[in-house]
Amino acid sequence: MLRTNIEDLVMISVMGKVSHPVKGQRPYLVAHDGEIMVLPGVGGITYNKRIGDICVGLAADHVEPGVSTQNTEKCEFYAPGYNRAYNALTCVGNTARVVSGDAKGSKGIVTGKHGGIEHVLIDFEPEVLDKLLIEDKILIKAIGQGLRLSDHPEVAVRNLDPGLLAQLHIEERDGHLRCGVAKMVPAKIMGSGIGADQTWSGDYDIQLFDEKTVDEFELGDLRFGDFVAILDTDHTYGRVYKQGAMTIGIVVHSDCYISGHGPGVTTLLTTNTPGKIETYLDSDANLARLLGITTK
Fold first, then answer.
1. 296 band by pLDDT with thresholds 50, 70 and 90
2. pLDDT tens, 85-101?
3. Domain 6-142 has what CATH class?
4. pTM (2 decimals)?
5. Start-end of H helices in the chain
6. 193 and 247 in contact (C-beta within 8 Å)?
7. Class of 155-291 per CATH?
């Protein structure tokens, strides 16, 4: 087991509510090829798409599996401050509990964070989804930010519950980490999210518009919850291209039709030291598999 500073971490409460789906002034989007489309997108309760399900080829754009949540209360000193804290402190793998409505008491797990819309995504069992309503409140026991790997200071940890870290397919070998991932993604097709100056919230989109690259890296069957390696990418202080760097993340939302976008990835591990993280393909490297969730 990896040695960490888990004893130094603080668990703190943050709370959001089930968000309503969102559309702009015009309901349609303009796809990368010019087609006009009206499709499901961010927000709401997604009943038939869950972690472990295919996230490519859907009649949707940026759709979020399970339950989309945010904190819409205004903070006196900084209007979006509560939602900023909700997003920054929550980590993938944190426990979530419904605290209002017919599903009160039901528990779920955080599966990712979606930038721009600033949503926290949570997986619940189907019977819980049927009881949930828009604006039901959800409490999260946030823990993970500040997590460090004691023997690997060159590797930065982001947005990762320490309990989930212990379940990931990671082994120590000759001074480096060897990580199992469902897919490897070249930096050249990364889109929305590039240039961000922090990676404690938000996500980074994989553009799937180049068929040759999609076929070469076998990205056509990406799934919600897949752990993926983004090659030559450093997320230590933001999102930058750097040869030899490596970032491990989790797929949090679906593929997209609009230019510059695609399945979103929330950062979990990153290093700017070449060779510090090595990866291998592992078909079981998906959050649903780790949790024993059966999907389509």
1. low
2. 999 999 999 999 999 99
3. mainly beta
4. 0.96
5. 81-89, 126-129, 162-165, 211-216, 287-291
6. no
7. mainly beta
